[in-house]
Design a protein that fits this description.
Strand order of the largest sheet: 1-2
Strand content: 5-15%
Distance between the termini: 73 Å
Number of helices: 2
Number of strands: 2
Structural class: mainly alpha
């Protein structure tokens, strides 16, 4: 049986559930950052850092 404990803010939570949620959140956040960084590096390999997309208003050109 899990017992309720107080966190630093005075809120009560179930210790086991809180630990699992915290660990899962940390793991998923770390994995998401790694995937996004890998995608950024992949796109930079195609010269993505030099590619700029401009709308006609930004480039000063108008569509014919």
């Amino acid at each position: 049986m899990q017992q309720a404990v107080q966190d630093g803010n005075g809120h009560q939570m179930r210790s086991g559930v809180a630990v699992v949620i915290t660990e899962l959140t940390a793991l998923l956040t770390t994995r998401l950052i790694a995937v996004l960084d890998q995608a950024r590096r992949f796109l930079m390999g195609f010269g993505g850092h030099r590619v700029a997309v401009h709308t006609p208003a930004e480039s000063g050109k108008k569509d014919a």
